[in-house]
Automatic annotation (TrEMBL):
Protein name: GTPase HflX
Molecular function as annotated in GO: GTP binding; GTPase activity; guanosine tetraphosphate binding; metal ion binding; ribosome binding
Region forming the signal peptide: none
Classification via Pfam families: GTP-bdg_M, GTP-bdg_N, MMR_HSR1
Coiled coil location: none
Amino acid sequence: MFFERHEGGERAVLVHLEGLDDLTREDPQEFLELARSAGADIAAFLTINRQQPSPRFLIGSGKVEELRALVKGHEADLVIFNHTLTPSQERNLERELECRVIDRTGLILDIFAQRARTHEGKLQVELAQLEHLSTRLVRGWTHLERQKGGIGLRGPGETQLETDRRLLRGRIKQILKRLEKVRSQREQARRGRRRAEIPVVSLVGYTNAGKSTLFNTVTASAVYAADQLFATLDPTLRRIELSEIGPVVMADTVGFIRHLPHKLVEAFRATLEESSQADLLLHVIDAADAERQSNIEQVHLVLDEIGAAELPVLEVYNKIDLLDEFEPRIQRDEQGVAIRVWLSARDGLGLDLLAQAMAERLGEDVLQQRIVLEHAEARLRAQFYALGAVVHESIADDGRQQLDLRLPRSDFNRLLKREGWQPEAFLTQHTLQ
């Protein structure tokens, strides 16, 4: 840290404001889960009704006195607000309460710092922390006066505050440069997958909806999964096989949350690009959550922010084991397209239905065609067989070979172009009239 603040421990008093408008309202239960996820020992939970936030403390001066008594009585060394505090509010509260004070953004950043495993994840967390910290460099230190003049005492002419800001900017610039390298490596890997025509399915959803549990079950992996917020930060990719589709890459990504700080969205943009570049999004939803609809809306807001709002989505309602007598099923729209799958990743219920729905959605651009081949086109016949595209073969009345094909149109087009055919011209000549 670049500045002196009260030492922060784990024993915390939580402060939640009611009565604010819908745009700034937060969920108290989610706040409790966030604090527990960060490892806080919760000493007290103070709920305050307030219509208008105070510019100085966010809460009224009377409530500041009540909060100070709670801190002293419980010997707490940390106060966490379930709302965004301005730098001046944070400083004023620390001065009055004589302990560390952090807001919702600081709490989420702390959880992210604990969860990051990979080098990239740690860089992204550090970037978000530094950008958050840069707004909280304060002037109230004893060593902030401009450095003294005189022989042997002349400095660079900067206050300590200016020096720290310069160091921050330098470190942020360095991290951004490294992350740009990571982003170009990711894009290179994505280009390779596109060349190989391997579709990408990305798991998205509200934090703790069960994405990692589903990912582990479907891919037979061992990604860290726990009943806590932001258990997964670093994206994980695994290759799976889908019947009638072939190889598919599945990506597990960071969970979204209500009012996800914009700095975090920016910092994790390289990670979230796995979602914005996917062929299909699996939106995992906690079917048993009372705030289900609100969480769905929050996910849509983040998808819109990262440029993924227009991608095809298959909703996956997870945790049906927590619902009364609920069976796994696929829901379809009026055109018969699979739009929703109900399952339990923990109990392995409905995973076959998920595979079926994924294959259908990824295979919407699948060619199903009966063609006839001359005897001289045996090489082409062999290549269709090599792709696993021949569903049935028979002999036509004129003695030519008749093949019933089913394969991705992209595979069909690529094969024919390699053999010197335009796909439309080929179909015209090789389709039974």
